[in-house]
Design brief:
Length: 769
């Protein structure tokens, strides 16, 4: 592979540095010579020092930085043939025939034009005597792979684009701050977020914050919206100290006329008399530290981009690396671009329903759930109101981010369906002691952004209090249970399900929404709170690394939570660029530890100043955090010193991440929808009765499909001793972690992405989430 040369060029969005790091290191790992192209296409055209050979240490300690260390610039010259001719000359002169471009649809379309003209450009260079026939023949084909960088998440075919999650973090930080001042002063705030042609940021922000009104370009409000909005906010004056309206900068009405934040403000001041303020977020959304999701996404896509370039041939169409169901996939570049343009065409032609569908299943689901929670009122839906049902909602296990968002949406949708809702304090223990109260619509206002568990939660399982729990269910005539929690929630519902043979009161629908920072509940790939915990651990590690800035060479051994599940350590390890992450699922011995110490010592002797080693709290009975710390301290003597840090419960605290707020809101809705359907199906002779296995389920997300898995079936898939699923999907990321840390590992372990076509049909059947 030493004859293969790669060039890397990009435009600016948070998370780009992780992509630069991944492409550079993976390229070097497979034996290629890698060049970094500074200042985007401008650097490609200008050449010279803008195109530099990259080394392993060139991208050390950049993963946590916002922006991009190799710069970005718009380049009008590259849009001309003369500019592309200069770019081709600069690449051929350095032997580069593989180009990885990170940018939006404009940048990627330009790359495809460059690729299609390549042979003609080389022929012109030969004709002008700038290169020889031999050189042109040796570099006769240019391979292009794209990575999508856009905070708008507006590129069709991929679930997420690089930078979008970080932008949501910036928005939610500001929304949280504004909510505090709005409640203090009884004000209404109009927040304008970016999104000239795409409402993704506005939509997810509104869903994650429980905004009272939303304007997005894909779904303009019907005529007369001014009257409806004012009437709705006026009706909420009683008992509400806070109104939040979120508006995408490209918001329009049904006739294409712009709706501005100042117009909305004036409406509220003049018609409703609200003290209203406008906040335009602007470019703050592009800045700041990249989120954990963006760092991991960029790393996944960057590694896959190099593999795609390795496998490319002259007949391979230019592709872009995207994300589908949390897996890297290869997408035909121009198919994606055409579908992306089709969204704008639909909006221009006022086919707004089609525009929403073309944005993908996730966007459509977000929009439908926002409308459901924002614009319906309690008991407004008659679909499920054939009788009185009572639903009890409780939190079980340790607190985690997103729990309160799930409770809020579940309570409100249950009330919309006409159910009576009981909130239970302190899990199954509270259910046994009747520590519960009836929920009302306004009682969950503002819960979405609250960390921890506002209902209170305990790890106590129901088996010790079964009689009392049955008594409570009978006394309050509870028709269904919604249990939000971790492994204890799953195990508790399993115990209740298995006790149905003895207690007919337990023959009711029961649904578990997985919520734990450990992400160890079977039946789902993601649990509520895991994303928040990874971000908290990542931020802690960033600060730990920074603490050694300017000091001598130092290695940090950091312990993470997670029990026996290594998800938190692995994901955090990828997000912070760790040198190693020790987990229970990936067994290791003293030989492995010694090899790792020697490997890190070799890196420290050269250009690396800091090292980071993560250890999951229960990864090994004997190789404790203290043992590993002392081993590194002893073996690294004279080369580096070593410090130890236990992150502890900071991983459980803090405000939920945008993902967990959004995920929790949607899981709460889906849980109640499922419960309402089961209640209707199993209501006979004045009561609910069901003892079938499929009425006690874990609500999970697998790839991008929502699944309701019976707890009795999941029993066979569970390692109860270690409280983890027997098969864990994220272990496929371990080879990437090791390769980017320069460990020689079997390349056969890496699972390359599949090619996925992007058409109107594929977008219309995309389940999204």
């Amino acid at each position: 592979m030493s004859s293969v040369h790669y060039g890397f060029s990009l435009v600016l969005d948070a998370g780009m540095n992780a992509a630069v790091r991944a492409v550079t290191r993976m390229g070097i790992y497979v034996g290629a010579k890698v060049y970094l192209i500074y200042e985007g296409y401008q650097g490609l055209v200008d050449g010279g020092d803008n195109i530099k050979v990259a080394h392993w240490h060139s991208v050390t300690n950049i993963i946590q930085l916002g922006g991009t260390v190799i710069g970005s610039a718009r380049c009008k010259t590259f849009t001309t043939r003369e500019g592309r001719l200069a770019a081709a000359y600069n690449l051929v002169k350095r032997g580069i025939t593989n180009l990885c471009v990170c940018g939006g649809d404009g940048s990627l379309t330009g790359a495809n034009i460059f690729r299609s003209e390549w042979s003609g450009l080389l022929a012109e260079l030969v004709e002008k005597g700038r290169i020889t026939d031999t050189l042109a023949e040796q570099h006769g084909h240019l391979n292009i792979v794209g990575l999508v960088g856009s905070i708008d998440n507006d590129f069709c075919g991929t679930d997420m684009t690089i930078g979008a999650d970080s932008a949501l973090h910036r928005i939610m930080e500001i929304v949280d701050a504004i909510m505090t001042t709005a409640q203090s002063h009884q004000r209404t705030f109009v927040l304008e977020v970016m999104g000239r042609h795409c409402g993704y940021l506005a939509l997810v922000s509104a869903l994650a914050s429980g905004a009272d009104w939303l304007f997005i370009p894909e779904a303009p409000p019907l005529d007369g919206w001014e009257d409806r909005m004012c009437a709705r906010l006026e009706s909420r004056n009683t008992g509400s100290r806070l109104n939040i309206i979120i508006l995408a900068e490209g918001a329009i009405d049904r006739h294409g006329k712009p709706i501005t934040s100042n117009y909305v403000k004036d409406l509220l001041v003049n018609r409703v008399g609200h003290d209203t303020r406008v906040t335009v977020l602007g470019h703050v959304q592009r800045g700041g530290t990249p989120s954990a999701f963006d760092r991991i996404l960029s790393s996944k896509l960057g590694v896959e981009a190099v593999i795609a370039l390795m496998e490319a041939s002259p007949d391979t169409p230019a592709c872009v690396i995207g994300l589908a169901g949390n897996r890297a996939v290869r997408l035909p570049l121009m198919e994606c671009v055409e579908m992306t343009k089709l969204v704008q065409t639909s909006m221009n032609e006022k086919r707004f329903d089609e525009a929403v569908k073309l944005r993908g299943g996730s966007f459509e689901n977000n929009w439908n759930i926002y409308k459901l929670l924002a614009f319906q009122k309690p008991s407004q839906s008659k679909q499920y109101c054939t009788t009185d049902f009572s639903v009890a909602i409780l939190n079980v296990g340790a607190p985690s981010g997103g729990m309160n968002a799930a409770v809020r949406s579940a309570v409100r949708l249950a009330l919309i369906h006409g159910h009576k809702v009981y909130a239970v304090h302190n899990g199954f223990l509270g259910l046994a002691s009747e520590d519960m109260f009836e929920m009302e619509w306004h009682k969950v206002a503002g819960w979405t952004g609250q960390g921890g568990s506002l209902l209170g939660t305990k790890r106590t399982l129901p088996e010790k209090n079964m009689e009392k729990i049955v008594g409570t269910i009978k006394k309050f005539n509870i028709s269904a249970l919604l249990v939000i929690g971790g492994f204890e929630a799953y195990k508790g519902v399993l115990q209740l399900c298995e006790a149905r043979a003895h207690y007919e009161e337990l023959c009711i629908p029961m649904c578990v929404i997985p919520a734990t920072i450990s992400n160890n509940v079977p039946g789902t790939e993601f649990s509520l709170g895991a994303d928040t915990a990874v971000n908290a651990a990542m931020e802690g590690c960033d600060k730990i690394k920074q603490s050694a800035s300017g000091t001598k060479r130092r290695v940090f051994v950091v312990e993470t939570m997670g029990g026996y599940c290594g998800y938190l350590a692995t994901y955090t390890g990828i997000a912070v660029g760790a040198d190693a992450a020790y987990i229970y699922e990936d067994p290791f011995n003293i030989h492995d530890l010694t090899t790792n110490v020697e490997h890190l010592a070799e890196k420290m002797k050269k250009d690396v100043q800091r090292g980071l080693v993560l250890r999951n709290e229960k990864c090994h009975e004997n190789y404790t955090t203290d043992f590993i710390h002392k081993l590194y301290l002893s073996e690294g003597k004279g080369i580096f010193d070593c410090r130890v840090n236990v992150l502890g419960h900071l991983q459980q605290g803090g405000a939920p991440s945008p993902f967990d707020r959004n995920f929790g809101t949607k899981l709460g809705v889906r849980g109640i929808q499922w419960i309402s359907e089961r209640l209707t199906e199993n209501y006979r002779q004045g009561r609910v009765f069901t003892n079938s296995a499929d009425t006690a389920c874990v609500l999970g997300l697998n790839k991008k499909v929502i699944c309701f898995s019976p707890v009795t079936e999941l029993k066979a898939e569970t390692d109860f001793e270690h409280r983890i699923p027997k098969v864990q999907w994220w272990l496929n990321l371990r080879p990437m972690l090791k390769m980017l840390a320069k460990y020689q590992t079997s390349f056969d372990e890496y699972v390359p992405g599949e090619m996925k076509h992007v058409t109107k049909r594929s977008l219309s059947v995309d389940p999204g989430y």
